[in-house]
Amino acid sequence: xxxxxxxxxxxxxxxxxxxxxxxxxxxxxxxxxxxxxxxxxxxxxxxxxxxxxxxxxxxxxxxxxxxxxxxxxxxxxxxxxxxxxxxxxxxxxxxxxxxxxxxxxxxxxxxxxxxxxxxxxxxxxxxxxxxxxxxxxxxxxxxxxxxxxxxxxxxxxxxxxxxxx
Length: 165
Description:
This protein is α+β, with helices and mostly antiparallel strands. 52% of the residues lie in helices and 22% in strands. It has helices at 2-12, 14-37, 47-60, 63-68, 72-81, 83-94, 152-159; strands at 99-110, 113-122, 127-137, 140-143.
């Protein structure tokens, strides 16, 4: 019992408590880094990161990567439409042009959903406004079906009926 008391007294000192918390944080961070190296954990993209990854996959013609960024319902629909039709949907997002950069217009988070509005600048000088609706599935943000067809105001009003009034 005396050993337990002396141990508690030692831990109760501020500098010792701080050292124990720091040690615990370091252990967790090292565990996360080891998990990243071995593929056990991953770094989750933000809604904007998911948006950018979708359009980058479209530009690169990486149909599998674009498929992985869809929500479960979208993946089911993409599977049912066939490979050729899915390729047309993905190719339609970039329309065969090279994306130079993105400029965030607006990002609105509504719990498990997000609405992203972005200006897409192409190397040919064309500027397009794009809007995507995303849903959080587990720990990842996914683009809702159908991609590339959203209107910002209508989509935001789905979650905030007083938007724009």
